[in-house]
Amino acid sequence: MTLSELEKATQESTLTRWMYVLRRWPLIPFFILGVLVLCAVFSPLIAPYEPEKDQLRAVLAMPFWSEPCEEGQISNKFQPCNTNGIGLGKDERVYHFVLGADQLGRDLLSRIIYGARLSLSLAAVAIIIGTVFGTTVGLVAGYYGGIIDEVIMRVVDVFNAIPYLLLAIALVFVLGQSFAVVAFVLALGAWAGIARLVRGQTLQVRHFDYIALARVAGASTPRIMVKHLLPAVGNTVIVATTLQVGSTILSESILSFLGAGVPPPTPSWGADISNGREYLGSAWWVAFFPGMAIFLTVLSFNFVGDWLRDRWDPRLRQI
Amino acid sequence: MRTFIIRRFIFLIMAILAATLIVFALSRLQGDPRNVMLNVGYVSPEQWEAWGEEFHLDKPLIVQYFIWVGKGFFQGDFGESLKTGKPVFDMVKGFAPASLQLGFAATLFVLFTGIPIGMLAAVKRGTFIDAIGRTFAVFGQALPPFWLGIMLILVFSVNLDWLPSGTRGHDASGFFEKLQYYIMPAVTLGWLASAGLMRLVRSSMLDVLDSEYIKLARAKGVGNSGVIWRHAFRNALIPPLTFSALILVGFIGGTVVTETVFAWPGLGQMTYTAILNNDFPLMTGAVLVFTVVYVFAVFLIDILYAVIDPRIRYT
């Protein structure tokens, strides 16, 4: 075997090298999340149509790859057809419903793009509130220990014992359906897990010498918590938070599916699936695409969360 | 051991009390419950006062709370549903069997997928089978349950016409006919839990397979299946046991969604309808039932865990 042959034999193929990169870095999830964030921030620029504008001549219009409507045919709930490229209405304006339209002839793609805005902003607000509260509670419980710890952790336990989803639905209906209420209810579902994790970490860290030295040096308790404990548990917090985003988005979609989310006509993935359910027999795409959006979003967040955990916090790897 | 059980029991009582407080607060946040009954039209002030006396609404809130808790826990009387006029206790009793059956079916699905897939993935680590197993888990944790249910209906009911799209199949005859009605709801309710169980079984099995006593068993000449079944399997199942409590939590939230998607006449759908109808006596009663069931289950699992694995600390 000549040297060049040997080199060739040991060289990895491009595919193998790419597989290696993809295994090490969650590039695909990052890409999906990047697209999502872009959609959420610039939805008015990206979305082809207004998400709340109906087009009753294109009710349940089919996605772009299906057979176009016949001459003079109007898409309706009994016989949906593909209206892409056909002039609709008096002014013969041409619409392109890439992913089809819903039961009011609203462009599904635009609704999904705007839906990203709602889902991501709700999740962001909820996660921030939940993380700040959960971390504070966890730090206090872990640092002080004793009776304070006992009381706080029992409260967390009790909180975990109440079926969250039922509580969430009831709270949304009692407090009124609005962005703030839904965000608050979602935050309620996020803080307890984070508090428990942070407390566990704090319990380990607080016995380290540098904490004792800080106390000897005269640092106040709040200062020790913020300057010395928080950085030590920071990785845990970030990992736990990322892993929590997926389930928060899922909870949000469940709430809006059950009609307990931000009220219509605001485009929301869960509510759109609920609408599409009625037309499963004739127009599967109305329920399919928003669900796909939720699935891919949650999947991506979970992958990134798992990746972060493996990198930053291998102790948590087991589950 | 005894102090452990006593401590857990005290916590159980505390948790249930706290739940009653929260539920009661929820029912009063809406304002005077009499407002909900106003849909009958004109109500005279006398009638209003009479209602107040009948439901003890003229007393301070804290007294009302104790009356509600006392009647509920000692007489099984949680009031009557505003919508149907039937006692809450009877309604819960009427809807419970359907939910329990669904829960049982889903549990079977979870056990018969989660454990074998987790085991296989661990034993065949790094192979194609492991990849399939992990995909199963990753999907389970990212699929919105209601969408999963709807897509199952789309594929297996609308397109293939293999399975019925919903209800419990009261008019179906024969065991296998009835069984068909359980398949999709059980998968919808169970996949998330199964995914969690699978990951836990897999990692726990990997830990055990890596341990000294497994190496000793192999060195001794025990065959592969002997190592896996006699030595590893039983030890690997201890951590997933605690997970069964989490399965139950998932089920309690999941029943609402699953029963709504599949028109399943169970507690989840009943509670959801109660919330939609502002039927507060029914809603509070149902949430309380769910909480009590859950807290008791956790209590039993904690004790079971301590019995099975003496290494855990009784604190």
The largest pleated sheet of chain B is described as: none
Distance between the termini of chain A: 48 Å
- If you average the pLDDT of chain A, what whole number results? 83
Number of strands of chain B: 0
What percentage of the residues of chain A does DSSP assign to strands (E)? under 5%
Secondary-structure-derived class of chain B: mainly alpha
Helix share bin of chain A: 55-70%
What does this structure look like?
The complex is a heterodimer of chains A (319) and B (315). Chain A has 319 residues and is mainly α. In chain A, 66% of the residues lie in helices and 1% in strands. In chain A, a hairpin with a 4-residue loop joins strand 1 and strand 2. In chain A, helix 3 (27-41) packs across helix 5 (108-144) and helix 9 (209-216) crosses helix 10 (221-257). The longest helix of chain A is centred in the middle third of the chain and has 37 residues, at 108-144. Chain B is mainly α. Helices cover 76% and strands 0% of the residues of chain B. Chain B has 12 helices and no strands. In chain B, helix 4 (88-123) packs across helix 7.
Supply database-style keywords:
heterodimer, A: mainly alpha, two-stranded antiparallel ribbon, flat, B: 315 residues, mainly alpha, 12 helices
Write the layout of secondary structure elements.
The complex is a heterodimer of chains A (319) and B (315).
Chain A: H1 3-10, H2 14-24, H3 27-41, H4 43-46, E1 87-88, E2 93-94, H5 108-144, H6 146-161, H7 164-175, H8 179-205, H9 209-216, H10 221-257, H11 269-277, H12 285-312
Antiparallel strand pairs in A: 1-2
Helix pairs in contact in A: 3-5, 3-12, 5-6, 5-8, 5-10, 5-12, 6-8, 7-8, 8-10, 9-10, 10-11, 10-12, 11-12
Chain B: H1 2-29, H2 45-54, H3 61-75, H4 88-123, H5 128-142, H6 145-159, H7 175-209, H8 212-220, H9 224-236, H10 238-261, H11 267-276, H12 280-308
